[in-house]
Design goal:
Number of helices: 15
CATH architecture of the largest domain: 3-Layer(aba) Sandwich
Number of domains: 2
Number of strands: 10
Order of helices and strands: HHEHEHHEHEHEHEHEHEHEHEHHH
Shape: globular
Strand content: 5-15%
Largest sheet: 6 strands, parallel
Structural class: alpha/beta
Length: 356
């Protein structure tokens, strides 16, 4: 379950004694037994590529679980967190299963069948934006099941950062930040190309790329070669995995958060955190970013457009006025998406489905 969902369960659902249950490979049966024991008639399922464990396991188990619920007259609500968009299917598979030897045509057929089954069985499919809705419709004609919802932003619990991490980021105050798993869909190679151009004019600029590097080691090695070849060793820092306890200071000390994604296939936890901390945002116009920031709230760049990205980075770096403006817009957006309010809307929707 994504961090922002896990840390902020639905407000008000405690009155109905909502229960959160986790299992291993027997997850569908474990969860179903818990539902039956608690006499539930509705299940809320955040759907991403790893809802029930590793990608392949999850995709095979989820339709089974939904079918068990269907046969038992238990309604299911799918909250779409991530999917394999058919227009970027090959890249999405490389991102999640980089070493697979199975033909992609066979994988595509299997995944299409699985997602069609999931959306067909579910009673409601909740999506965060127009792009998410289009992703669902690529797998079948389910417009009447789709419900547009908002995602919630809430302040995280404060924690004491380690002295080493605190010291590092306090010295680097004012850096630009790219945060999250270091994988190909994040488009970090384009950000490095843009940063190479930026430091010619602003040699003191620092970019911090923070996040797990164990998802695609070949991609990480390629980024490290780019850093060395472009003489960016003093301008770019790869931190590796950052624990939740260090996340606050990581975001507080940065001047801007950058999302140079090549493509998008899911919700973005780092985006929620950037908005939560009221940070200026530069992003490519893909997925949720293009819908959320259609008119204001961030600087949007065409995907894989290094020149445009250089211009955006330079503008934010040299202008405190622009940083303040974008930061204020993030803060205002966080207020609009306040989790206390959004959670109440979720509860109302779930009650409607449960009583229908």
């Amino acid at each position: 379950m994504p961090r922002y969902r896990q840390r902020y369960p639905l407000v008000g659902m405690e009155k109905s004694k909502a229960r959160f249950v986790w299992g291993q490979l027997d997850f569908p049966l474990t969860l179903f037994r818990a539902i039956r024991k608690d006499t539930r008639n509705l299940v809320f399922v955040p759907l991403e590529q790893r809802t029930m464990g590793p990608t392949v396991t999850s995709l095979l188990l989820l339709p089974l679980f939904l079918m068990i619920c269907k046969l038992s007259r238990i309604k299911t609500v799918i909250n779409l967190q991530g999917v394999f968009p058919l227009e970027n299917f090959s890249s999405a598979i490389d991102n999640v299963l980089p070493n697979t030897k199975v033909p992609k045509s066979l994988i595509k057929l299997g995944i299409f069948t699985i997602y069609y089954s999931i959306f067909k069985i579910a009673d409601q499919i909740q999506v965060f934006s127009r792009t998410f809705r289009l992703w669902v419709l690529q797998y079948g004609n389910f417009p009447k099941k789709i419900q547009l919802v908002k995602f919630g932003i809430a302040k995280g619990e404060s924690s004491e950062p380690s002295k080493s991490m605190s010291s590092l980021f306090s010295k680097l105050h004012g850096y630009f930040l790219a945060y999250g798993h270091v994988v190909p869909r994040k488009g970090l190679e384009f950000l490095l190309d843009a940063w190479t151009e930026l430091v010619i004019q602003w040699p003191d600029a620092v970019l911090v790329i923070a996040g797990s590097t164990d998802k695609d080691r070949k991609y990480v090695a390629d980024l490290q070669r780019r850093i060395a070849k472009s003489n960016l060793a003093n301008s770019v820092i790869l931190t590796g995995f950052v624990p939740d306890s260090e996340e606050g200071i990581l975001f507080e000390a940065c001047n801007c958060v950058v999302f140079p994604y090549a493509f998008s296939d899911s919700m973005s936890g780092p985006l929620c955190t950037a908005i939560e901390y009221g940070k200026p945002i530069i992003a490519t116009n893909v997925g949720l970013f293009s819908d959320l920031f259609s008119s204001e709230g961030a600087i949007l760049c065409p995907s894989k457009d290094v020149n445009f990205l250089v211009s955006a980075l330079s503008s934010v770096y040299e202008s405190k006025e622009l940083r303040d403006k974008l930061g204020l817009e993030s803060t205002q957006l966080a207020s609009k998406l306040d989790w206390e309010v959004i959670a109440a809307e979720y509860c109302g929707l779930l009650r409607e489905v449960g009583s229908a």
